[in-house]
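Figure 6 in text form: structure in, sequence out.
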C-alpha cells in the first residue's frame, strides 16, 4: 500500500519522522504529515512533481543547474536513485524517508529555549543585554526569532526539491494556506489571552510572532511552488552560477525576492510620513530631542498605524517595554512591512538547507561559514556606515544579515557535532526542537499558571521568587536574580513537557 504523506516543510519540519503527528487546529486529512515532501504512487505507476511533470516512481527528482529534470547529458546537483544500482538507489530512498537532520532540530531547540527564557521576565541594569535592545543594537533576545526563520527556511528546503510527488499545485497551496491560517489564529489567540477573560475586539492585537512566521512561510512556500526554476540560457555557464549553485538552482526565487526587497527599501526610505519626513528610522519619543516624537519606526511604523490602527498594535499604542524609557509608542515589531525582510531571512535559511542537501559532507560547513562571512560583512558595512542601523524592531536589512550570519555559524557547529565522526544526537535541544512551536504555545499559555499552582503560605511561586528570596539585596541584582530563577523554572517545565512528548513519540504541528 502506498504511503501518502505531504511533508510541508513548515516551521516545525526538519524532515521526515515516524512519530505520530497531531495538528493543533483541527485534524487535517491523513495525507498531511511532517517533513518536506509528499510521498505516494501516481495512478500511472509513476510520480508527478509539483510542476506537473512525471517521473519514475523509484527515483528522486534531480535538477541540473538549469532547474529542469535531468536527462542523460545533464549532471544532477544531487544524486538520484535511478542513476544508481537498484539496491543502492533503494537504500538512498530508505535513508531519505527516515533520516532527520538533527542539526535543524537542535537549532530550533536553541531558539525555543532561548525564547522561553527571555520572555519570562524583563532583565534590567547590568543584565539588560539578555532582553531585547531598546532600539538599535543587538542583545541576546534579538537572535531568537531569526533562528526560527532560518530553521523554517532550511526545513522547507531539505525535502522540497528531492521529494515532491503526486500533488497538484492547487492541493499543495491548500495545505500551505491551512497551515498559515493555523499559525495566524494561534498567534492572535496567544497575544490576546488574558486568563480566560473575554477578548475585546476593538483592542485585539493582530501582529504576533506566530503570525509573522505564518505569513512568511506562506510567501516563501508559494514562491517556491509557483516560480520557474529555469536559469536564463545566457547565465548558465557564468562563474556566478558555478560559484553559487544553491542560489542558481532557484534563480527566479531570488530575483523576485530581491526585487520586492528593493521596493520595500524605497518605501522605508522614500515614503513622506506626515510630520516626520523621509528616511527616519528611529524610535521617536525622546530620540533626537523629541523632534520626531510621534514618528516611532518612521515609514514602517506609519504603515502599521494606518493599516492596523494603534489599538491593534503591541500594548495598544502605549510605549513598548524595550523602549519605554524613550517613550516610543504605537509600534509593533511584528508589523506588516517587516514581513519582507523576514522573507529574505527565510530564503537565506532555505539556501542553507540547499547547502546541507546538495553539497558533499566535507564542503557543507565551509559553505555555511562562507555565507556567514559574506552576510556578516554586509551587515557590518551597513551598520558601521550608519546607512542601515542594526534594528530588531524594524527588522532592518543589516539586522537580517548579521543575525543570519550568526545562525549559519551555529548551524555549521551543530551540523559538525551531529554528523560523523561525533554523531551527537542533539540531546535535549533536538528533543524540544521537534515540537518547538507547540512548546512555544505551551510556554505562553500554560507555564505560568502551572508554576503558580504551587503556593507557599498563600503566595504564588512567582511572588515567592521575586519578593521572599531577594528582598534584602540591591534592586537591580535582586530583580535580575529573580528573573534568572523564574526564567530557569519556565525553561525546565518546557523541557519536561518536550521530553514527555518525545517519550510518547508525538509531534504536534500547527
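Output sequence:
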Amino acid at each position: 500500500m502506498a504511503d501518502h504523506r505531504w511533508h510541508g516543510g513548515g516551521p516545525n519540519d526538519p524532515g521526515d519522522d515516524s512519530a505520530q503527528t497531531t495538528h493543533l487546529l483541527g485534524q487535517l486529512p491523513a495525507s498531511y504529515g511532517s517533513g518536506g515532501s509528499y510521498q505516494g504512487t501516481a495512478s500511472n505507476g509513476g510520480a508527478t512533481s509539483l510542476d506537473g511533470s512525471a517521473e519514475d516512481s523509484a527515483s528522486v527528482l534531480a535538477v541540473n543547474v538549469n532547474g529542469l529534470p535531468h536527462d542523460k547529458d545533464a549532471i544532477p546537483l544531487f544524486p538520484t536513485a535511478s542513476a544508481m544500482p537498484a539496491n543502492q538507489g533503494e537504500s538512498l530512498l530508505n535513508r531519505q524517508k527516515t533520516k532527520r537532520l538533527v542539526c535543524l532540530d537542535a537549532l530550533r531547540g536553541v531558539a525555543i529555549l532561548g525564547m522561553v527564557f527571555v520572555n519570562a521576565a524583563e532583565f534590567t541594569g547590568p543584565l539588560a543585554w539578555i532582553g531585547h535592545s531598546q532600539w538599535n543594537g543587538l542583545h541576546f533576545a534579538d537572535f531568537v526569532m531569526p533562528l526560527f526563520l532560518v530553521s523554517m527556511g532550511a526545513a522547507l528546503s531539505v525535502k522540497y526539491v528531492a521529494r515532491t510527488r503526486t500533488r497538484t499545485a492547487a492541493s499543495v497551496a491548500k495545505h500551505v494556506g491551512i497551515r498559515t491560517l493555523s499559525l495566524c489564529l494561534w498567534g492572535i489567540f496567544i497575544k490576546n489571552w488574558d486568563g480566560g477573560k473575554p477578548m475585546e475586539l476593538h483592542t485585539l492585537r493582530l501582529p504576533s510572532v506566530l503570525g509573522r512566521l505564518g505569513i512568511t512561510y506562506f510567501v516563501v512556500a508559494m514562491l517556491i511552488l509557483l516560480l520557474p526554476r529555469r536559469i536564463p540560457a545566457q547565465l548558465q555557464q557564468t562563474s556566478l552560477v558555478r560559484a553559487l549553485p544553491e542560489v542558481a538552482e532557484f534563480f527566479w526565487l531570488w530575483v523576485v525576492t530581491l526585487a520586492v526587497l528593493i521596493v520595500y527599501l524605497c518605501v522605508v526610505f522614500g515614503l513622506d510620513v506626515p510630520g516626520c519626513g523621509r528616511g527616519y528610522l528611529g524610535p521617536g519619543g525622546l530620540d533626537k530631542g523629541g523632534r520626531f516624537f510621534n514618528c516611532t519606526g518612521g515609514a514602517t511604523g506609519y504603515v502599521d498605524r494606518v493599516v492596523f490602527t494603534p489599538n491593534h498594535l503591541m500594548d495598544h499604542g502605549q510605549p513598548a517595554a524595550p523602549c519605554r524609557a524613550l517613550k516610543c509608542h504605537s509600534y509593533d515589531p511584528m508589523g506588516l512591512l517587516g514581513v519582507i525582510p523576514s522573507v529574505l531571512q527565510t530564503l537565506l535559511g532555505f539556501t542553507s538547507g540547499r547547502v546541507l542537501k546538495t553539497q558533499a559532507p566535507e564542503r557543507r560547513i565551509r559553505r555555511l561559514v562562507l555565507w556567514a562571512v559574506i552576510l556578516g560583512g554586509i551587515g557590518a558595512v551597513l551598520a558601521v556606515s550608519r546607512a542601515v542601523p542594526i534594528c530588531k524592531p524594524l527588522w532592518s536589512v543589516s539586522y537580517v544579515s548579521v543575525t543570519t550570519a550568526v545562525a549559519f555559524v551555529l548551524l555549521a557547529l551543530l551540523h559538525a557535532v551531529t554528523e560523523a565522526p561525533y554523531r551527537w544526537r542533539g540531546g535535549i535541544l533536538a528533543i524540544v526542537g521537534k515540537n518547538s512551536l507547540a512548546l512555544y504555545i505551551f510556554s505562553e499559555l500554560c507555564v505560568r499558571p502551572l508554576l503558580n499552582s504551587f503556593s507557599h503560605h498563600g503566595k504564588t511561586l512567582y511572588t515567592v521568587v521575586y519578593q521572599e528570596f531577594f528582598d534584602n539585596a540591591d534592586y537591580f541584582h535582586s530583580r535580575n536574580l529573580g528573573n534568572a530563577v523564574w526564567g530557569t523554572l519556565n525553561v525546565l517545565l518546557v523541557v519536561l513537557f518536550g521530553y514527555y512528548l518525545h517519550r510518547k513519540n508525538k509531534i504536534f504541528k500547527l
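Caption detail: The two ends are 27 Å apart (CA to CA).
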